[in-house]
Amino acid sequence: MTALQKFKEIENKITQYNEALGVIYWDLRTGAPRSGMERRSEVIGTLSSEMFKLSTSDELGKVLTELESEDIFATLSDMDQRLVKEARVEYDRSVKIPAEEYKKYVILTSNSENKWEECKGNNDFDGFKPYLEQIIEMQQKFIDYWGVKETRYDTLLDQYEPGMTVAMLDEIFEQLKQKLVPLAQKIAEHQYKPETSFLKNEFDIAAQKEFSLYILKQMGFKFDAGRLDESVHPFATGLNPGDVRITTRYLKDDVTSALFGTIHEGGHAMYEQNIMKELIGTSLCTGTSMGIHESQSRFWENIIGRSRQFWNCNYEKLQTLFPQFKDISVDTFFRGNNVVNPQLIRIEADELTYNLHIIIRYEIEKMIFNEGLKVEDLPKVWNEKYEQYLGVKPQTYSEGVLQDVHWAGGAFGYFPSYSLGNMYAAQILNTLEQEMPDFWNKVEQGQLHEIRDWLIERIYKYGKMRKPNELILNITKEPLNPNYLSQYLTKKYTEIYKLNN
Question: Which SS3 state, helix, strand or coil, does residue 65 take?
C-alpha cells in the first residue's frame, strides 16, 4: 500500500467516525429521551476519543511526513496536495491536546448542550454557569496548547475563519458601525413605518410545515439526500452530500420564525449536498469556512427570501395556507417582514440590526479570552451592551445571555462568521447581478435552480478545496469588502422606508 493509499484510508475512517457522531448529535437535539442523555454523552466521548486517537496517531504523522517530501508531493494531484496540507494543519493542532483532556471536553460540551436547553427553558443562568466556566477554562488550556497567535482570541477565530484576525475584524466591524448605525438612526427618526400588526396572529403549525417544505423544494433542496425536523434551536448537520439534515422551529404566534429559519438552514444544506463526490471520505468534504457557509444561509434567507421578487412569486401560496393574509397586499407583507426593529433575540433580528447582535457577542468573547471576563459577570455585560447598541434590555436570562446554544457547545470564535457571511453574501450578489443580468427576474419567476447551479459551480462543489480568501477572490475578483453589505442594506432600506420621500 502506497503512502497516499494509507493516508486516504485513515482519512476515510476519521470521516466515518464523524458521520456516526453527527447522527448521534442530531438525535440528541431532535427529541432523544432526556433520561438517556448522560449515557449518550459518554458514548459521544468514547467515539470522539477513538477518532481523536486516530487523527493524532504516529501512523498518520509518519504518512503525512512521507507525502510532504518534495519528490512525492510534486506528483500528487491538486486535490491530494490540498488534502495533505489541510490534514497537516489539523494534525499539528490536534496532536498538542492530551487525549484524555479531549475526551473530557467532548463529554462536557455534550452534557452542557443538554443542560443549556433545560436552563434556557427555566431561565436558570446559575444552573448553567458551572458548565460554562468549565468550558471556558478548558478552552483557555487548549489555546495554550495550540499556541497564542496575536491574541488569545485570534487562536479561536482561526479555527472558524482561517486567516481572520482580531485586528482585521475590529476594522471591518468599525466600518460597518460607521455606515449602519446612522442608517438605523435615520430609519428610527423617519415618519414612515411599515405595518406589522398583521404578523401578530395564530398560525397553524401543519400549514407552516407545508410551506417550509414547499420553499425548500423550490430552492432545490434534495429530499432524497436530506430531511427537515424540529429542534429548540435550528441547525444543519451535513453527514455527507447524500445525507444532510436540517431543523427549524415552529411557533404558533410567529409564522416567519420557521419560514426564514428553514430557508437559512436550507442554504447551509444546499452547500453540503452539492460538494463534488470525489471529496467524499476526506476532510475536504465540507464548507471551506463558517463565514462562507453562513454566506450561503444568509444569501438564501435574506437576499433572496426577504426580497420583494421572492414574495411576488410565493405570496399567493402563503395566502392559500394562511387566510389571515387574504386582505394583506404583497407589498405590505414584504415591507412588514423587513421592518427595522431593534430587539433582544438574534435569530429574529432584521438584516440591518442583526450585525449589531454579532458585534456584541464578538466584543464579549474578546473580553472573556483576552481580558479575563468572568462568567458571573456575563449577564451584566450582555445587558449593558444591548442597551448601548440596540437600546433594549433583556428582562430574563433566556432572552439574554442564555439565548444561543453556541457557548454551550464550546463554539467561541464562531459568531463573527455570521456577519462575515452577510458581507460575503452581498459581495457575491454584486458579482451574480453582473454575470446574470436577469437574476431578479429569475427570483420573481421562481427559477431558483438556475441561481443554485451558479452557486454550485462557483462555491459548493469545491468543498474545502479552496480557502475562503481564495474563493471570494476567485468569484468576485477582489478580497472581502464590507462596503458591498453597507451598499446593499442602504439601497434596500432606503426603498422600504421611503427615506428619499
Answer: helix
Mean pLDDT of 240-248: 97
DSSP 181: H
Q: Give the chain's domain count.
A: 2
Report the side by side order of strands in the sheet with 226-230.
226-230, 243-248, 236-240
Cα R_g (the chain), whole angstroms? 23
Same domain flag for 286 and 392? yes
CB 140 within 8 A of CB 152: yes
CATH number for the domain harbouring residue 468: 1.10.1370.30
Question: pLDDT tens-digit profile of 471-484?
Answer: 999 999 999 999 99
Q: Which domain holds residue 275?
A: 166-496
The catalytic position among 11, 113, 265, 272 is 265
Whole-angstrom distance, CA of residue 371 vs CA of residue 76: 45
Q: Which residue has the cell 477582489?
A: 478
Q: Specify if 306 maps to a domain.
A: yes
Separation of alpha carbons 3 and 6, rounded Å:
5
Q: Are residues 175 and 242 in the same domain?
A: yes
Q: DSSP states of 250-277 as a string?
A: -BTTBHHHHHHHHHHHHHHHHHHHTS-G
| Rounded Cα gap, residues 344 and 387, in angstroms | 10
Q: How far is CA 340 from the centre of its chain?
A: 22
Nearest to 246 by CA among 267, 224, 215, 220: 267
Tell me the HSE value of 157 on the side-chain side, using a 13 A CA sphere.
26
Residue 127 predicted with pLDDT over 80 = yes
Q: What is the dihedral of CA 376, 382, 383, 389, to 10 degrees?
A: 160
* pLDDT (tens digit per residue) in 414-447: 999 999 999 999 999 999 999 999 999 999 999 9
Measured CA angle at 261 (ends 413, 244), to 5 deg: 75
Coil, strand, or helix at residue 243?
Answer: strand
Confidence band for 364, pLDDT divided at 50, 70 and 90 = very high
CA-nearest of 325, 341, 27, 403 to 194 is: 341
Reduce the DSSP state of residue 161 to 3 states and report it.
Answer: coil
Q: Helix or strand or coil: residue 300?
A: helix
- Residues present in the chain in total: 501
**Rounded Cα distance, 6 and 32, in Å:** 37
Helix (H) or strand (E) holding 237: strand 236-240
- Residue 197: DSSP 8-state: G
Burial level of 372, CB count in 10 A (0-12/13-18/19+)? exposed
- The whole-number pLDDT of residue 28 equals 86
- Catalytic residue at 265? yes
- 386 contacts 392 by C-beta, under 8 angstroms: yes
